[in-house]
Amino acid sequence: MEKQTRTPILSVLGHIDHGKTTLLDNIRGTAIAAKEAGRVTQHIGATEIPIDTIKKICEPLKRDWTGIEVPGLLFIDTPGHHAFASLRKRGGALADVAVVVVDVMEGFQPQTHESLNILRLLKTPFVLALNKIDRIKGWNSKPVPFCINYKNQPEYAREALDARIYEIVGDLYDKGFSADRYDRIRDFSRIVSIVPVCAKTGEGIADLLLVLIGLSQKFFERTLRIHLEEAGVGTILEKKEERGLGTTIDVILYDGKLSAGDTIVVGSMEEEPIVTKVKALLKPRALQEIRTEQRFERVKTVNAASGVKIVAPGIENALPGSQVRVARQGQDELERVIKGMKGDIEEMKMETSPEGIIIKADTMGSLEALALELKGEGIEKIKKAEVGCISKRDVIDATTVKDRYLSVILGFNVDILQDAKEIALENGIPIFISDVIYRLIEDYENWMKQEREKERRVLMDRLTTPAKIKILPGCVFRQSKPAIFGIEVLSGKIKTGVKLIRPDGVGIGAINEIQDKGESIKSAGQGMQVAISMKKPTVGRQIKENDVLFVDISEEEIKEIKTLKGLMSADEEEVLAELLEIKRR
User: Is the pTM above the cut of 0.90?
Assistant: First the structure.
């Protein structure tokens, strides 16, 4: 059976506005400019760049291409960590190599950290493209290789860039990766390459492509070899409605061959996978022909690795992020493929808990990425994790969760159906939606913080809470009937009507009134110095200057207060422990 080295699949990740799309556009543009060396076609959700075109772009670097067998590079054209997470195959990531784009001035941001977490989880090698080097003071960026342009920069600009690179090296070290500037590395399989680039001018594009070709060849000498005649396997990028075609699926084929007329098994939102026949395979025309009315051309067969649009009946419920597999050689083979597909979807299902939050996402991979980040934040209880829009059923399921902080729905890159909105409002179910995972989790955590603070204030106003005061020396205004004297609140909060006890457990009566600067107030918090009046004690007998007194709390209230663990401050918990010790003695 004929074997061939397939094109490595690359994904571009990074924080918002760090230049992922500009970088891809520049790689495409540079490749088109060098197209005499080889036809460049932007496929479905991907851009293929042949090795001859890459050699032409990298010509100024004068490198030896002996031993390079990879036929080119296939860039997945859906930038963003969530898209990358969606690109799964059995046992790991669909992308062979990733490019993490970082703004040289902004450094690591939340989405950069998310991207690195996903790369570590999926054990994917990556290159770090340090973008926007034209923003370095004094740097003169040109559309040439970085290592050539670096020599022509003023010394202060080179030093400023090197300082930024060392910061990035430190950030990567904290994440468990060794890294250095690419031209200082000997062992590319152990150390992460940092390639300074300017996506706007095209500086460093040649360096980046060279490193990616070398890394692909080094890491995937064996795994990139595929049997051309094997049944094709791919991952669904997107499901789309195309005029005149109906529902279509955009697929990255990463193994084997796919032909029109093949029976395919497609991952579904329902329990059973979809079994259908390929009606047509479509590819966009070459970039130089993209303006013509016929956007797509029909092809009979595609080989891995490749992007393709599949037209087939009954694929309305196809699940983005799941697999597409060709089933050949009759019914037995078909049943084996269906069983394998069910196993894959079963494997992707998460552990659920009856008391947990509900999460929804646009693809299976996004769902996994969201669950992973929630776990990293200590939120592990998930009641339901599904692909698709937030529905009325999701809201009803959320109402059955007793813990109000878990009775919520988090939606990543999805919409809320109208009837779900209405029932959520009726039942007070909070719904959080974002197309950025870290922002989604941040919104949920901020809401929890605010709600807990509200709850704390309501409960603390209702209950007698732990507090400790000190009688200020030289501030006794009346000794008895009523005793009026100045105090400082050392911890907690005092209110009118609360009873006070001494450290020996003797009660001295209740606070009648609290005054601050001659005005009556209902309560006084930690750090405040106020005057209080009490009917029962006599200053100089039962109490003295500098005495420390505690708010007395009944056994019933102590039991209720103990349920407020996490709502009391550390100082209040300390005072409660002291009070319990007094009562025990």
Answer: no
